[in-house]
């Protein structure tokens, strides 16, 4: 098989079929895990959604646990809070999370699975430790309190996400992102920067 020269004259390797297959599997897995949760989602259903043979899922990811780990790999892409004015930390954190929740299904899948499955809960705990806790350490007045403060922030962010995206409680769904930010930001700001009780 020969590679064709692109029409614009820029040469480069063509996209590999395996990359497209992996992307299709991961997209189908995220949707299936979000809709069904970890326990009910099956390799067979995911493969059907991706329009491939189930053996291909196993070939790339080994088993359901490996597929789940790959499908729920999350980089929250948090802003550098060293550059965020301390008085804006709560607002920036809420706005950032809302943009992530509104823009994708990975976090919804992870949240849905995290409340029903130990592997999902461990995945959420890992994201918390690696990505949310450092924010609290940067912003809070006493780094020894950072784990508690980060956990309180997570309770607000995940609680809203559960109500809005998983349980779809009508008043939560009806709120605009700006309204959610206006309600939650002062609470997160207090958790992050106020003196401890």
Number of domains: 2
Poorly predicted ranges: 1-10
The overall pLDDT average reads: 86
List how many beta strands DSSP finds: 0
Tell me the strand percentage band. under 5%
Secondary structure: helix percent: 55-70%
Structural class: mainly alpha
Count every helix, treating DSSP H or I runs of 4 or more residues as helices: 10
**How far apart, in Å, are the first and last alpha carbons?**
69 Å
**Molecular shape:** elongated
SSE order in H/E notation?
Answer: HHHHHHHHHH
Structure commentary:
The protein is mostly helical and about 200 residues long. It folds into 2 domains: about 15-70, Arc Repressor Mutant, subunit A; about 85-195, no CATH class. It has 10 helices and no strands. Helix 1 (about 15-40) packs across helix 2 (about 45-50). The longest helix has 24 residues, at about 15-40. The N and C termini lie far apart (about 70 Å). Residues about 1-10 have low confidence and may be disordered.
Write a compact overview of the structure shown:
The chain has helices spanning 17-40, 43-50, 54-61, 64-71, 89-103, 106-114, 118-139, 146-166, 170-174, 177-193. It is mainly α and 197 residues long.
